[in-house]
Design goal:
Elements lengths: L12 H13 L29 E4 L2 E9 L9 E9 L9 E6 L7 H6 L13 H6 E6 L15 H7 L13 H18 L2 H5 L3 H15 L4 E6 L2 H11 L4 E7 L4 H4 L3 H26 L11 H14 L2 E3 L9 E3 L1 H12 L5 H12 L4 H9 L10 H13 L6 H14 L4 H4 L4 H4 L21 E8 L5 H10 L3 E9 L8 H13 L7 E3 L16
Parallel strand pairs: 4-5, 4-6, 6-7, 7-10, 10-11, 11-12
Antiparallel strand pairs: 1-2, 2-3, 3-5, 8-9
Helix pairs in contact: 1-5, 7-8, 10-12, 10-16, 11-12, 12-14, 13-14
């Protein structure tokens, strides 16, 4: 994608003024549950859906669509479609049941993840052959995501424009008037493309109710659940609303659910600090290895990185057109920072990061540009279709301050506590501050999962998105849980570490857990030597 250079902020003045009025006057929609029974389920009961009409859609894959109520307080009202996919147990004679999973985001289509499962072995969330043998693995695209009526807020032209003109030295990447104008355009676009009622229904409690509709349609009395990242919000919600329906639950790279439903600005600050720590881990490793192993920066990688970002922002590197394309692009400092943030967050990609930074330093921006273009998941705004669903779900859940002063203070805090990544996090909740479809009956009670079997909570010591202390708090919040820690850098542990894999397989298949506080070691990270993951 060709990226245009900064434009005058004057053209955004009117939209910015309108956005400011909304920011200072709108309600966060953070009222307590409404129309709910004491158990947290809708007071009106939704009819059980018909069994899925499965059709073959790939090797050992079946697809179907299940209709569910848009609002469970109005079960006979508007219905919405859910895309569901099933990977049949490879050992049906020893099948345990159905395992429903959520791969995170929010906004990642579970069906797409399941379809690509054979290609993603060795990556977070990839199920082992033992699990695939014993379970029908069920992927449900959450409402508003993927094949389940995906949220659309921007045109292709707008999405490309939103991704331009970021400045890595400016909180939020753009001047505040431009950010406010972007927020106005984004949220206005959301209600242009779908109803406010639909947007308000995208909350995690409704996703949990949808899962129970899928369970019912499958004819299962109980489900086994695996959730990664945002999937660790969905799992505890389901376990809290439907504790008698949970057989076993594993929560990988857990979110602090109290913080998710609390102040979103604190949540985003924690994420920025976590990403900064993983980038600092790469810097420290490079420095410790010495210039013979890690030549970037000649012994001072931090200074060299900052200089490279400044240089690229002042004079972006031109990228030649890829084979079969008419135009190339350019690599600027903001793109380099975002690619580095993503690659530094997984110690297995550190060698790629090192070589790409060295190439950019030598005037070849193609490797880093290619890596940037493949980064599609971020906790902060990026110009992808997934970000639209991501924003819609979190705005339905979050309690976001309406006043601009709170966002200014949070931006200053993020930049202070996370020198480099804080600029990416700053002002990234503006869309939710002016969200046009407040969810007035969202579930706000602690997600304890009381009444379910003990959950296995798996956390990385240096996770770039969900810091370890979130896992510690989740373990305390859940009524019964065991914490397993994986050393090292990375977001998500199951599928990447043989020690974790064994523990998760045992929990899912047999319902057995390691001792609380168990630690799994990992290979020592290196900036230039690819890690070879242990065999499962």
């Amino acid at each position: 994608m060709v990226r245009s250079r900064p434009r005058s902020a004057a053209r955004y003045g009117a939209a910015a003024a309108a956005a400011l009025m909304v920011l200072t006057g709108c309600s966060s929609g953070a009222s307590g549950p409404r129309g709910m029974s004491s158990a947290g389920a809708p007071s009106a009961s939704a009819p059980s859906p018909d069994p899925p009409a499965w059709s073959t859609c790939g090797k050992n894959l079946e697809c179907a669509t299940i209709k569910v109520p848009q609002e469970y307080t109005e079960p006979d009202g508007a219905q919405i479609p859910l895309a569901v996919m099933r990977h049949r147990a490879t050992d049906p004679d020893h099948r345990i049941g159905s395992l429903i999973f959520n791969p995170g985001g929010p906004g990642v289509p579970a069906t797409e993840t399941l379809r690509n499962l054979p290609k993603t072995a060795g990556t977070p969330g990839a199920f082992s052959p033992a699990v695939l043998a014993r379970f029908d693995v069920i992927a449900m695209d959450p409402r508003g995501v993927g094949g389940s009526q995906a949220v659309r807020c921007l045109t292709d032209e707008q999405r490309a424009d939103f991704g331009t003109a970021f400045d890595p030295a400016v909180p939020g990447g753009k001047p505040l008037p431009r950010l406010l104008a972007d927020a106005a355009a984004f949220t206005d676009g959301c209600v242009e493309h779908q109803s406010k009622e639909f947007l308000a229904s995208l909350s995690t409690d409704n996703v949990a109710r949808d899962i129970d509709q899928v369970r019912s349609a499958l004819g299962e009395d109980k489900i086994t659940y695996y959730g990664l990242s945002y999937g660790t919000v969905v799992g505890p919600m389901y376990a809290t609303l439907f504790p008698h329906r949970v057989r076993q639950m594993v929560l990988d790279a857990p979110v602090d659910t109290n913080l998710w439903f609390g102040n979103s600005l604190t949540f985003l600050n924690d994420v920025a600090v976590a990403s900064e720590r993983t980038l600092n881990a790469w810097f420290e490793t490079c420095r410790t290895e010495g210039t013979a192993v890690c030549p970037f920066g000649a012994g001072d990688p931090q200074a060299a990185f900052d200089a490279l970002i400044d240089t690229l922002e002042a004079k972006p590197l031109k990228i030649a057109p890829a084979k079969g394309t008419a135009s190339g692009g350019e690599l600027d400092g903001a793109m380099a920072l975002e690619a580095t943030r993503a690659l530094a967050g997984d110690q297995n990609t550190w060698p790629l990061l090192t070589s790409a930074l060295l190439a950019a330093q030598d005037g070849n921006g193609a490797p880093l540009y290619t890596l940037w273009s493949s980064v599609t998941v971020s906790p902060f705004p990026v110009p992808t279709a997934m970000f639209e669903a991501h924003t819609a779900v979190r705005c339905a859940d979050w309690q976001t301050p309406a006043g601009i002063a709170a966002h200014k203070a949070a931006a200053a805090k993020a930049v202070t506590e996370a020198k480099r990544i804080g600029t990416r996090a700053a002002y990234s909740a503006l869309n939710c501050a002016r969200w046009p479809a407040p969810n007035k009956d969202r579930v706000t009670e602690p997600l304890t999962g009381a009444g379910t079997p003990p959950s296995l909570v798996v956390a990385g010591r240096l996770d770039p998105v969900t810091p370890h202390h979130w896992a510690e708090r989740m373990t305390r919040t859940l009524d019964s849980a065991v914490l397993l820690t994986r050393e090292g850098v990375g977001h998500g542990s199951y599928g990447t570490n043989s020690c974790v894999d064994s523990a998760v397989d045992a929990a899912l298949i047999h319902g057995t857990h390691p001792a609380d506080g168990t630690v799994c070691e990992t290979d020592t990270p290196a900036t230039t030597r690819p890690l070879v993951p242990a065999k499962r």
